[in-house]
Hints:
With 160 residues, the protein is an alpha+beta fold. The protein has helices at residues 4-8, 45-57, 152-159; strands spanning 11-14, 25-28, 39-42, 68-76, 85-87, 108-111, 124-129, 133-142.
Amino acid sequence: xxxxxNILLESEGPAPKKIPSEICWHLSEEKRSTFPDxxxxxxxxxxxxxRGLQMLRDEMVDDPDNTVFYLHRVKINPSAEIYPDIxxxxxxxxxxxxxxxxxxxKIYFYENGHEGLDGPExxxxxxxxxxxxxxxxxxxxxxxxxxxxxSELDKKYKLL
Length: 160
């Protein structure tokens, strides 16, 4: 019999020892000044903007032509403990680590299989809690004209 725990903890290799400077962005429909103490996703600017465009295409927002996204630039606590391995998928899904075993005080790197796939490899994102995050900047992006590629979100995405 194969132990399920060994399959769940499969990794993509050792995690970076330091937080790469480009992993510092979060996109949300909410303008935030603080972050929740439960799981929170942080990625590259490309991943964050790609997520917004995906939400519009998949109609995951109430009104795609009149949605405002907030791109948050954050600083991650450099002294927070980093989980030693890169997980092969989003920890929030519970496929790599059972959700009740996630330590909210740690930083988890995972291979992002959804957003920013046109970027450099490995396509890493971070999952951690709000107590490890400090807000640095907020950029407001509207979605008017997104179907024609003319929204603020599209324009910022095309600059990358």
